[in-house]
Protein 1
Amino acid sequence: MAAGSRAAAARMTASSMLDTPSHPRSRPLDRPRASRWRRGVVALSREKVSEGAADRILRRFGFAIGIAGVIAAIVELPEIADQGRFVPVQWTIVEVVLAFGLFPVLAVVSVGMGPHVIQRVAGAAAVSFLGAMAVVPVAYAAPNAEAASVWLYRVLALGVLAAVLAWRPPLAVAYLVVGAAFSALANLVVLRETTALALLGDFARAAGLSALFLWCVIYARAAAARVDRESAIESSRAAAVAGTAARERERARFAALIHDAVLSTLLDASRTGTESPVLRRQAERTLEQLDECRGAEIEPDRLDAQSAIGFLRSAVHEVNPGIRFTTRRWAGFDDLHLPVDAASTIAAALAEAVRNSLRHATVVGREVRRTVTVTISAGGIRVVFRDDGAGFDLSAVPVDRLGISVSILGRMRQLSGGAGFVESEPGEGTTVTLVWGGNG
């Protein structure tokens, strides 16, 4: 990172109350040591509240599938032990660990980790389950005359559920086909007598049962994604409508004050024509009301934390819905009263940063990761957009390039209480930070 970039980063860390503190003493939620665990749970619960429906359904499915894997292992233990009589002990252990070992891990990470971690663990569990299937021909050196089917055949749905949690539907469907074929071939290895028709029946039964679970999860995740899209659209609309309605209310209130107080006082003065104590008191009260109206701290067009998050998420996903959007809120310190015009300015600067990244940060041969993190704390908001793309030399940007100087930094400089920072180096990606504090 260039020296100028490091200096800017240092200034931002020193001046912004919204930065995520790295030292425990700087956190706004610090309490005695006895409450450290409780603070972590509270912060985690608040962070989950602001998750989208797609992330919440992923988390819940991950936990449910992880627990289902543990339950299936317990239920299948008698059959595993019975079939283990025909297999060396070490191979039985390998099969059990490969088939079920990662499902408890999936349940644990689904409680507190992010969506990407949940999906990676689910993908590893799916691949590991196929590995258990692949071990069967090696483990069963001789057929098992007493078995009706290998025990792995009955729990194929676990591997399919893990796959649909980790990957897109086409890959999950391909996994289902491959897994059903593996399970049918496993039966062919284990059973003494089988026919082509029986083998086809095994494949159809395994694929049909797993397809039901596959469809349910795909449908639920698609529905959650639609909910997120509609929620973002409605949040944006609600913010605009709230601002318009509030301004209309203030305009009506001021008009009523003019009519009921100012005009009434002037009319009485014109009729009386002489000094009157009643008229004097009425005029004094009218002046007080005008002063109150002028100096009152009215917030007719401000967004709370949840509305601001939805507003910014909508702005990002309108440019590219594939960008990961996460939020952080500290319980008790996440009150926010963000003016609609300030939210619009931040959203416009953020959208421009995303567009710049999509245009200029491409790296040949690999996918560029882009994330937006919104932190709300101490009555302010901090938005960080990061990519790990090509990056650039800030000092080499031409003056006539308006994307950074005007559309991002210029917008934030003109916003009262706002500031913007851009950090980048060739090959190191780019970070754009936008901050707004209510105190200006």
Protein 2
Amino acid sequence: MSATSLVSIEALDGDNTPRLQVAIDDLSASGGGRLELLAGIHICRGLRLRSGVDLHLTAGAILRPVPDYAAYAHTTVSVIAEKSDRGMIVAKGARRIGLTGPGRIEAGCESFIIGDDETVGTFIPAEFRPRVIVFESCDEVEISAVHISRSPMWTLHFVDCTDVAVRNVTIENDRRLPNTDGIVLDACRGAVIEDCTISTADDGICLKTSIGPQGVAIGRCENILIRRCSVQSLSCALKIGTETHGDVTNVVFEDCSVSSSNRALGIFSRDGGRISNVRFSRIAVECRETLDGFWGSGEALTVNVVDRVAERPAGAIENLIVEDITGRMEGAITVISASSAGIRNASLARIGIDQRPGELGTAQSYDLRPTNADLAPKADGGGRANAWTRGADGRVIGLRDYPGGMPAVYVAGVTGILMNEVRITRPTPLPQGWNAIDVVFETAAPDGSGAWQN
């Protein structure tokens, strides 16, 4: 076979794993090419993609991974996420690999739901769930046109990859199942995500820098472009963090739309990595309140720095531009540093947001989760690790009341913030529990006590 070889495989009843894996291995060993899955249902356990291979799902082709965590014991990965060390389709150290459409991957999330916690608004997930796609240390990666639905955990996870392109991908996950992030770029360098449509309960498009098996950051995340994507998320639609062990720099989100979401735009520093040179431009947002099982509630923009582990202080957030943002929110815009690392040089320009009350009232608190308490919830307080924990008073730890009520914009612990043409339209009269001051700045007095400057 040459590098342009084409191998087509028909759908057969039963487990197709051995024949698919052999075809992938042979194609790679012979110089690479396209492995084409023809129309029909292809049932499989874990697959390992090899260098030079494009796994192509033709129109009408459905790849249906077996909905059983044990089925992926042979496709483990090094970076653990939510206790998961397995993926349905994985690759490591591969070059020139692809997963292309227009077929579908149906990932079977319903088999990984063990209950329903209506008090916080989420399903209760199984303890162990596989991710759909995990590519580690790969170069020249393309995922395009494919439609992925019902992921049990993170959907696309790129770890320490370079030259990544994700285009025209559709992701449709259950809107009540936690940790079903759409696209995660983890310590990747040089990536473009464009023209994608994502609907999920957790983060839509997320950049992070995880910690590796040796206890250090797996790398930096830099030179990333996200554009023309439509996202619905009950966590944060377009996000950096919360795992930030390594630096994140040179990131652009532009010309996107966020609808039916909890938070629209977010940056969350927790683990020591510095986040710098980030721009959000020309984004339409629609943010709604949610029950307190989901982080935040109705914020168009949330930026915060929190020391999650005392021995490893959070890194600073520097050089942030947020411009040409329009839409509506039921929460506020918050820019908060609760860490000495701080937030420096932030610019908010040409922002036009309609702030309206929600039906739940949960937006009247700002949210600094995840905190140290979320790492290992205590049994007496109730909760789920990396999600929510209740204190002795029954309230979720990390939720704080806005001083004086909810404003339009709340800024605390920030050095150098410029606001130009920031217009937040608020109802008249203001609802109960809202702050009469539109923009609230909190600074520290010389003696360390709280002082207000508006």
Protein 3
Amino acid sequence: MAERYDLAVVGLGYAGLPLVVAAARNGMRVAGYDLDAGRVAALAGGTSYVDDISDQEIAEALTSGFTPSSDPEVIAAAAAVTICVPTPLRDSLPDLSAVLDAVRLVAPRLRPGGLVVLESTTYPGTTGDVVLPLLAQGSRTVGEDFLLAFSPERIDPGNPAFGLHNTPKVVGGVTARCAEAATALYERMVQKVVTVSTPAAAELTKLLENTYRQVNIALVNELAVYCDGLGVDVWEVVAAAATKPFGFQPFRPGPGVGGHCIPVDPGYLTFSGRALGVPLQLPELAQKVNDRMPEYVVDRIARLLDDRRGVRGTRVLLLGATYKADIADGRGSPAVPVAELLLDRGALVRFHDPHLRTLRVHGRSVAGVESLDAAVAEADLVVLLQAHLDYDLAALADTAPLLFDTTGRTVGTRVVHL
């Protein structure tokens, strides 16, 4: 049978869909497989559900031959397969069920000499110890009958400067031939490929990147709490330290850490460390520090309101319910625990976010307010959690009766910073 696709992407989410677009843009014939029939239908109709991918980019990919499908047989027609499925933590343990399901889907459909690349974030050793045995069933030999590599996704949602094409792609192959094939695949899509010695090295690279961010965010969050007690402006200190042209990279405090990467990926590292008998204490401590920030934010709010009328019965408006600015992703957003803790203290809580219509609070869906101006006018306290570009920060500082800014972006006589 003649080869139909250069690449099949399994999992069409935040990691898989940008890969589809990049491959199609560079002349590759691409199939995309996803269990979610709604996603497949949306893509077939030219509609994107991922922030960084526009409807126009989907339309262009379709014109270039992109085939979205919920039929796993598209995998059998592809020379290479990438697996981009979720890998959550459940009770601090890696949940690889989606990866296992995907590999079991790919294994019987893999063409002779076909390449499989796992992109899902996971602990070091997953590619070699978990994926390889499933693909090698039936006396198939890696490096000969099939090729296997790991290449971590490095998508940063909402980043206007760096996307898939200009972010170096790290690749680790099980054998030299595997590494060569995976490197060649990504060289067709990105500006630079960095080939490392093993899949484990590539797996650990992704964990190091996000653990580095988690630990440094925790450091500056602890510093913010310390500066509050000291009576020093933490934002001034960070800005001053950032003037040093070497040896320092600024991280900024916030109401908590959300999303699928920073709160999750270090957990794979600590899981692996415990399994090896080499516990990694810094990532675990950093997670605890960052997890405490929503409670600290609410404590600060309580102190502010105690000087006025107290928390109970106070109308509090939360601005920015996504986990980071200028995206429509609410996964792990600190807005949820902040809202829940305020409700537990008797506050009347509402939220507004131009990118998110509803928020899941205490197990139920809460709709955001429609009119920002009216909500600000009715509030006793406005809490800025994410400084979306849609917000006129200067106007908020002027019109809010009291603004608690966790982003350090506003200035005014009625503004209090984290």
Protein 4
Amino acid sequence: MDTGWRYRLASVGGVAALVGLAVMLANNGTVQAAASAVPVLGRLPVDPPAGAEFVIEVALTAAVVAGAFVPLYKPRPRRILDIVALAHKRTFVAVFALATIGYFDYTYKVPRLTLVLITPLLLLVLPAWFVWLRRPEARSERAIVVGDDPTQIATIARGADLPLLGYLCPTVVHSLRGSESGRDDREIETPGAAHAVDGGRQSIGLSRLGGLSRLEDILVERDVDTVVLAFDEPDRAEFFGALDACYEHGVAAKVHPAHADTVLTDAPDPNAALVDVEIEPWDIQDYLFKRGFDIAFSLTGLLMLAPVIAAIAAAIKFEDRGPVLYRQERTAVFGETFPIFKFRSMTPEGESATPIDDEENDRITRVGRILRKTHLDEIPQLWSILRGDMSVVGPRAVWTEEEHLLEDEAETWRKRWFVKPGLTGLAQINEASSVDPRAKLRYDLQYVREQSFAYDLKIVARQLWKVAADVVSTLW
């Protein structure tokens, strides 16, 4: 399925057809009789319409649902989870509108039993329809090059087996490149490529679409499928910012094989012109399991530990009258930042980004030393997990000020940024901390390579056992 009007027609037609089939199924006598056997649904009258009344019901329902799904008709890049979430929201909007119409006008009323029966059907089939429409093999691949290295951009434009729409690069870099060679600000020239004459200038015809700040706008406006990264230094902020934009919009990313070791890839072929970047290492099933476990774990922990939370807060306040919680900015996926909260275990004065062992840290309070030994200072981070900023398992989120020091100590440190940070991880259960960044990075990258929901459960079980042992040894 191509983009443009063909996609729009298929979207609208598919929604109308699926809604019509759902209404017909919900009005089937056998289905309604089976639904009436359910105690709650048995109270609703069984009155499937016939003739003109049935036609009006199907037409009204299809029109209302199709109208509610207008935001999904425009072809634009979206992640699968975003498509499903938006389709569910629009389904509930349509059902509410149908219920409201029936409340005020009996002539166009959709029977309550029919409305109840079609809702789960629409929640299932309509998201599946839009996901199917946006499947990769049904789309005409549309790619752009994003970077700050004119040489790479030219090389990719010359050799990439992709339909390139254009490229994005910083204005300063492009102006310098253009001024050196006498070119204009619209096109890049590559030696040895097939050239076309345009106003006295030779070019390959690859248009500059703007600066890096326009990336998200271009992804949406041009319905881009693939972004090819062409940065001189792949670990710079713009590089991960581009990856973050690809992640948010469900766009595939590729890099030159020379930079494959700076990102997550599947055993790149050294002879390939471009290699795929694993922007979402988790597949959809494991992601749903992981997020469900995160919500259940954090909610259960916050409820069960409520008395402990109150006791810890009172102890901290009683010791030095200082604040109970400590707030710090941590690094998340693709270099984004988010605030985490911990029970304060140190005096606020003299904070330093340099990692230091607890035995050598004279800022730790008496209550704080107990909290750190028993890991109870981490309890407030359950709220960050519930919000979705963190996961239960993942590379430990690092203070943003400390991150710069650790990057200098360990190469490829930023590979940790491809996974949501966690409350615990493989490094924590093996007692590798930021004091030894190379060991910590080794364990974190091992987790990134081997991650799965079953692997997460094993790490959580080991961490809970470790916490229980630390609590017992501290108290006794």
